[in-house]
Amino acid sequence: MNVIETHSYEETELLAARIARSLNKGAVIALFGDLGAGKTVFSRGFARGLGITEPVSSPTFTIVQEYPCPDGAMLYHLDLYRIDNSDAALAFGVDEFLYDKNAYCLLEWPERIPDLLPPETIRITIEHIAEECRRLTLPSDMKIQD
Ligand SMILES: Nc1ncnc2c1ncn2[C@@H]1O[C@H](COP(=O)(O)OP(=O)(O)O)[C@@H](O)[C@H]1O
Ligand SMILES: [Mg+2]
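^ thats the input. predicted complex w/ magnesium ion below
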């Protein structure tokens, strides 16, 4: 595994932006981590990396936020915290977001739908180490651009 520690939220945003630039559209990125780990901070940086300038906040109540990217792709940012299980996610139409080849799909609380995650899902875990320190565990084969 590829383990990286960040020491500020800005560092996590910058890392996420680089990861975004390293991926192709169609990517599904599952962000595992407790409340306050930094999933939304990561998502904000990821959006910046795709060239999205709109403010990004957690779609806890709306479940999904859609952002157009400058290159014509979409970013779907989903927060499944309030979704009980896969059946509820399917009723909500989660597959439309997971399988859109013209979009990046970022998931907070992917543990709600373990059986629905496509096999090629990129799994990232964020752990709270200390006040400003977080440990990100990325797939070992992930190549991150500068
Ligand atoms: N290194 C770091 N990386 C990410 N967030 C950090 C870091 N250090 C402190 N934080 C703070 O942790 C909180 C993370 O919140 P958030 O991203 O909303 O968490 P989550 O979406 O996982 O519940 C923010 O208040 C952020 O400023
Ligand atoms: Mg969040």
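Residues 9-22 form the longest helix (14 residues).
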